[in-house]
Amino acid sequence: MDKVNNPVKAKTVKDVFELYMKQLRTANRIRYSDMFKTTYNSLVRFNGHLDIHFSEIDTAWLKRYEAFMRSENLAMNTLGTRFVRLRTIFNFAIEEKIVKPEYYPFGKYKVSKLKQKTAKRSILKSEVLKVLNYKGKTDYECLSIDLFTFSYLTAGINFTDISNLTQSNVIDNRLSYIRQKTKKVITIPVQPKAFELIEKYKESGNP
Known about the structure:
Shape: elongated
Number of strands: 3
Order of helices and strands: HHHHHHHEEEH
Largest sheet: 3 strands, antiparallel
Strand order of the largest sheet: 1-2-3
């Protein structure tokens, strides 16, 4: 108990996992909460239980967990994502003053080593044009083609960023927006066809 800042507030790894997942569910982030539940279940299979304090999770413990997952023949990226979630929970415990920062094990144990590089995938321009020129047979097909076309013409903007666009993002024939994933400001020229799609879906009185 001397390894925690406040014995009254001391919580086990199990307690903090459950608290964090509850907060995610309250925020309606159900899918994200389920991802932490998967990691939680994996840790229980490894350790038998999580009624332990965070100070017990040291570099040696993490290496044993890594070896356990490798014995399950899991993909490298799966190992990486589970360690990222465990690290998130550990950081949350530090923020809540449940464990002292000096017991943080991820300074020495590098999660980045578990990231597997994904081979770059691309399609030919002729294949892209087939999609752009395809005549959709249903409303959903037409919408899908329009979204693909708009993304292609605006430097690969993703669906999440498209869904957050408003008329205020178009300034002087340029599209300017903050990318949700990186919070970076992106500014690009808007091509005529992209303008056509903006006009097509623009609704009066709707931003």
